[in-house]
Amino acid sequence: MIRKNTLFYKIAGILTILFLLLAFLITKTSVRLSEDYHNEITQGLNKDVSKYIVQEVQGLYDGDSIVESKMGDLMHHVMATNPATEVYLLDMNGQILKHVAMNKEVKAEKVDLTPILAFISKDGNLYVKGDDPKDIGGKKIFSAAPYIFNEKTVGYIYTIVGGNDYDTLMSEHKGSYIRKIRVQSMLYVLIAAFFVALLAVYLLTRNFNKITAAFRLFQKGEHDARVRGIKHGEMALLASTYNEMADTIQSNIRDLQSVDNLRKELIANISHDLRTPIASIRGFVETLMIKENELNEEKKKWYMEIIIKNVDKLKKLVDDLFELSKLEAKPMPLQQEAIQMAEIIQDIADKYRIIAKKKGVSLNTVYSKDLPLVYADIALIDRALQNIIDNAITHCNNGDVVTLELTLEDNGVKITISDTGSGIAEQELPHIFERYRTGNFLNENKDGSGLGLAIVKRIMDLHNINIGVQSVLNKGTVFFFSLPINQRYKMV
Questions:
Q1: Residue 436 near residue 450 (C-beta atoms within 8 A)
Q2: CATH code at position 291
Q3: What pLDDT score was predicted for residue 103?
């Protein structure tokens, strides 16, 4: 099983790496500083060694040749002083002329005079390392002094303070010394890391527990649970993300509850509306079957017309329900194009004139022929206009007038559908676009499904435009909305 990269493992890993790194750095730094301290003290104590050698061994070098008999005096003096000391006689260019160095072979032929001259210029009061002739590239503390013959500097005495034997002794004790430093350092680091870890875990878990508590409350159904009091750092970002997520979920829950309530209401209303025509159809069919031989042809025809009328009403209800469901499905793509509203209005008016004439209602159109093209889904706008006009004719009586009007606005064409019919009561006006509204406005429309204006509202929402309505009871109603002008054909 793959172990997940949890917050615990991250913190533990970071603390472990930090602990090891600090322990290594402290140990390394402690050893280096200790060595530097020891070397600086040693160099300071032995800074005049080369001067003593120059005073004791006179006549060794005259600038051209070396007196070999004097080399014995030099070796005797070095062995008597400190066997671990290495002494080198250098010419004015740093070339090694003679040396007294025990055990290891001298590998270098020349040493750099720069640190030597700096040491001499400061009279030995300078911590500096010079070349190690026995180790090419190595550095050692030293003592140096000019070798003078006949009051003239002819070379230099270069003394390595602590040579091979000193290194061997240091190596033997270095391991034990480092182990002691490491144990002490790691102990200090462990104590420090422990308190730092406690503080870090406390700060993290304090805020983390607040977030966890909010999650648990939300899980138990307390959807108002939010994280409070965390304002800085990554935990604040996590808390803010949770709060935004909780707000979104709570909003979605409210929307779902609202949809569920609408669904229940819709099912109840649909059941009622479907039951009425079905019951009517069943009743008249049963009557025809039972009294088939008793009814004359005229009566049978009348019964059949009622059945057909109820079937048409049932079909319209089902069709409107299907269309509304399709419009409310997300996403609903629009097939928008440039359209001429004057042609659409005229076609719809011609279609409904026959229906209006049967009720004694006049259907008029008012528009200018030079109106610009608008941009919309022609099929959906046509359906919305038909629903509004059908609704207007339904609520008109003999002698009433329905008018379709187009007018030009700054950024669009305004479509107005007005009638002189029964109008809508003021208390019902805010609810006319709802599915299955109640009131006289619906009840007077016996042949309608009650979904026509809900379909209109959904079509307008898909086009992102508003539809307005004004009405006075027993005087008439006006519906109006505007469609944007197609930019390609926009009038100058």
A1: yes
A2: 1.10.287.130
A3: 61
Which SS3 state, helix, strand or coil, does residue 476 take? strand
Q: Read off φ and ψ for residue 365, nearest 5 degrees.
A: -125, 140
| Together in a domain, 341 and 323 | no
Q: Is residue 87 part of a domain?
A: yes
The whole-angstrom separation of Cα 222 and Cα 363 is: 58
According to the model, what pLDDT value does residue 151 have?
A: 83
Q: What is the mean pLDDT of residues 404-419?
A: 92
Burial 53-76 (b: 16+ CB within 10 A, else e): bbeebeebbeeeeeeeeebebbee
Q: How far is CA 465 from CA 414, 458, 482, in A?
A: 11, 10, 7
Q: What average pLDDT does the structure give for the chain?
A: 79
Nearest to residue 95, comparing CAs of 106, 85, 84, 80?
106
pTM metric for this prediction: 0.46
Count the domains in the chain: 3
Select from 438, 325, 453, 432 the least CA-distant residue to 390: 453
pLDDT of residue 268: 66
pLDDT tens for each residue of 192-205: 776 777 677 666 66
Q: Which domain holds residue 271?
A: 234-327
Q: In angstroms, what CA-CA distances link 240 with 232, 236, 252?
A: 10, 6, 18
* Whole-angstrom distance, CA of residue 281 vs CA of residue 309: 9
Is the pLDDT assigned to residue 452 strictly greater than 70? yes
Q: Which residues contact 342 (CB under 8 A, 6 or more apart)?
A: 367, 368, 369, 371, 406
What does the pLDDT average to over 317-327? Answer: 70
* Percent of residues, the chain, with pLDDT higher than 90: 22
Together in a domain, 341 and 466: yes
DSSP label of 428: T
Domain end point (choices 128, 155, 174): 174
Helical axes 164-219 vs 233-290, angle rounded to 10°? 30
